[in-house]
Design goal:
The chain is mainly alpha-helical. It has 14 helices and no strands. Helix 4 packs antiparallel against helix 6 (108-132), helix 4 runs antiparallel to helix 8 and helix 10 packs antiparallel against helix 14. It is globular and about 50 Å long. It starts with a helix and ends with a helix.
């Protein structure tokens, strides 16, 4: 694969680290950091929920270990996906969100090696947390590692079998929040899983936006995604559902404080997430009715920005409640 890449790009030697960029900058690009809020927000949410709603005492060092571990695993998954997608001919056009292999900054071998390092370091932090907090973190972490590794890697290659959305929903969306809650409380609970549903759907929207843009190329190379199954109209409806449902869920969780006190509930401060609604509506308004629109080129990046804004407001709401109101 490295030799094929060199022939296509005209490389005579291994690419010099940086190709004019400093090593830190190069590997930052290769890790595709625009997507990091997708994995970091659930960790922040699970942590703040544990303190605000679960009565836990904030443990900053354990929080940092969990956050860094998740980001390392995410970076490793991104590097592996960059290689697998390029090898299958899926990602050849350089876009603002492209990784290092597609840009010609690193070879597939370098990306695989870096990805392996990320998985090892991330897993090491997981073991540290498990043996210092709860062994249940091992099961949560193992499920997350498996989903990230087999997202594009054989024999499962979940992304190419229309299972990518489900894998991301589970690993980044739900397990990240559950793991962070467990790190702070030492206990496994359904509360962080349910509270993470809004952000999990937003995260899937990022993945769907990417796959929607790539429908033609994915189909041409035998890659089946939810987007390729749904087609243009179905993609738009699915995307709209993924963007709108989180606001509905937040509303329901807030109303539960009065209508169903014994169920999972959120404080009224959580309604500040609606400050991100204008951005969501603008995004939906610009969503194309076909697959040929240039709007699709930046749809995943813009959806990631919405996820960051929504998630930040969600976390801020729990912090505000914990500091000023302290829900009973």
């Amino acid at each position: 694969l490295d030799q094929t890449l060199k022939r296509q790009r005209g490389f005579l030697n291994e690419p010099v680290l940086g190709a004019g960029l400093r090593p830190v900058r190069l590997w930052w690009i290769a890790a595709r950091p625009f997507s990091f809020p997708a994995s970091s927000m659930p960790v922040l949410l699970g942590t703040t929920a544990a303190v605000s709603l679960g009565g836990a005492t904030f443990k900053p060092l354990l929080f940092l270990a969990a956050l860094i571990g998740v980001l390392l695993l995410h970076a490793g998954a991104n590097l592996l996906a960059d290689v697998r997608d390029f090898a299958k001919g899926l990602d050849r056009e350089i876009l603002p969100v492209s990784g290092g292999v597609v840009r010609g900054l690193i070879t597939p071998t370098q990306a695989l090696q870096a990805g392996a390092v990320c998985f090892v370091l991330g897993s090491a932090l997981g073991f540290y947390l498990a043996f210092n907090v709860s062994l249940s973190i091992l099961a949560i972490g193992a499920a997350g590692v498996a989903a990230g590794f087999f997202y594009t890697t054989a024999p499962f290659a979940l992304k190419y079998r229309a299972l990518g959305d489900a894998a991301i929903f589970l690993s980044f969306g739900l397990l990240g929040s559950l793991g962070a809650w467990t790190v702070q409380t030492g206990e496994v609970s359904w509360i962080p899983v349910i509270l993470a549903l809004p952000t999990a759907l937003m995260i899937v929207a990022i993945v769907h936006a990417n796959n929607w843009r790539d429908i033609r190329n994915d189909t041409r190379h035998g890659c089946k995604t939810v987007a390729s199954i749904l087609g243009p109209r179905g993609c738009r409806a699915y995307f709209t559902t993924l963007i709108c449902t989180p606001y509905l869920l937040i509303t329901v969780f807030v109303l539960n404080s009065w209508l169903a006190p014994n169920s999972v509930k959120l404080p009224p401060s959580a309604l500040i997430v609606f400050l991100s609604l204008p951005l969501a509506l603008t995004l939906l308004k610009r969503t194309p009715h076909t697959n040929s629109s240039n709007t699709l080129t930046m749809l995943d990046g813009n959806t990631a920005k919405l996820n960051l804004f929504f998630g930040t407001l969600y976390v801020a709401a729990l912090i505000l409640d914990s500091v000023f109101f302290k829900t009973a």
